[in-house]
Amino acid sequence: MEAFSPVPALIGGAFIGAASALLWVGNGRIAGISGIFGQLLPPAQTVVWRILFLVAMVAGGFIAAMLVPGLGVGGPGGLSAEMIGEPWWIAVAGLLVGLGTKIGNGCTSGHGVCGLARFSLRSLVAVLVFFGVAIITVAVTGVV
Amino acid sequence: MKRTLSLPYLAVAGLSGLLFGAGLYISQMVDPLKVLRFLDFGAIPEGGWDPSLGFVMVTAIGFMLIGLRVAGRRAAPLFDVKFHNPEFTHIDTPLVLGAVLFGVGWGMSGLCPGPAITLIAFLPENLWIFLGMTFVGSFIGHYVQKALVARAQAVRT
């Protein structure tokens, strides 16, 4: 298992957790990416901070890649940032991610990080369901 | 001026976004193949499973717990008048249905919304197809969710 990378995962997780904690203590907002993204649509409110957050998120990924080029994209273990599957496959997956996170009010960050830290039973149910279904999907489609 | 347009409020949003995106890169969550290898539990018997991304949750939740602790002593966040707690708290059909749909999409692509947006920094081919369709799905999902919640309320009353 040359790709096993617990240390970058722990450090990256700390960054994500610190970002979520900061947004909650500072602005009283949940760092749920699907919520921040999805509520840019009408009836949108408070658009400016959401756009700023998302643009900064892209910049954060870019800067981190400049500073520590050996990690993540193009890093050891033959990892890459390539999209997986044909265009129609990517389109269906993207549609399902948008639909599901909107209908279920959250994704890996909102339910997974913030919700679980709040000991929300609702989020725990969401996480168990989307994790379980994702594992089954990978087993069935066998893309890996 | 509106609170949400004040400099400290926007500085917090920007700094939080920067840290979040850096964390997604450092943890390698931005790599769809890495995510699929983490979700590939079928590879456990032959030793090909990559459990790395499970460790992301450990420190992410740990730091968020500290944030909640700090916030718990306050009546309001630093730069707004109230904490925006989640709108829904009960377990209902939209929650489970949404999680199922999201799970299929995540398992197909190895991408959840945060990494998908952060990948704009690296522009892999066909990323815009994914992001465009996520936006479309989110738009449709808004009305599906409203309809489902309205129906559930109609049943209850």
Number of helices of chain A: 6
**Spatial gap, N to C terminus of chain A:** 15 Å
Residue fraction in strands of chain B: under 5%
Q: What composes the largest sheet of chain A?
A: none
Task: Report the average pLDDT across residues of chain B.
Answer: 93
How far is the N terminus from the C terminus of chain B?
42 Å
What is the rounded Rg of chain A? 17 Å
Order of helices and strands of chain A: HHHHHH
Structural class call of chain B reads: mainly alpha
Overall geometry of chain B: globular
Question: Describe the biggest sheet of chain B?
Answer: none
* Oligomerization: heterodimer
Secondary-structure element string of chain B: HHHHHH
Low-confidence stretches of chain A: none
> How many E-type strands of chain B?
0
Task: Name the descriptors.
heterodimer; A: 144 residues; globular; B: mainly alpha; 6 helices
Fold topology:
The complex is a heterodimer of chains A (144) and B (157).
Chain A: H1 6-27, H2 33-38, H3 47-67, H4 87-103, H5 108-117, H6 121-141
Helix pairs in contact in A: 5-6
Chain B: H1 7-26, H2 32-39, H3 54-72, H4 93-109, H5 113-118, H6 127-156
Describe the model.
The complex is a heterodimer of chains A (144) and B (157). Chain A is mostly helical and 144 residues long. Chain A has one domain (6-141). Helices cover 67% and strands 0% of the residues of chain A. Chain A has helices at 6-27, 33-38, 47-67, 87-103, 108-117, 121-141. In chain A, helix 5 packs across helix 6. The two termini of chain A are 15 Å apart. Chain B is mainly alpha-helical and 157 residues long. Chain B folds into two domains: 1-85, no CATH class; 87-157. Chain B is 64% helix and 0% strand. Chain B is built from six helices and no strands. Chain B has helices spanning 7-26, 32-39, 54-72, 93-109, 113-118, 127-156. The model of chain B has no long low-confidence stretch (mean pLDDT 93). The chains are: A mainly alpha (144), B mainly alpha (157).
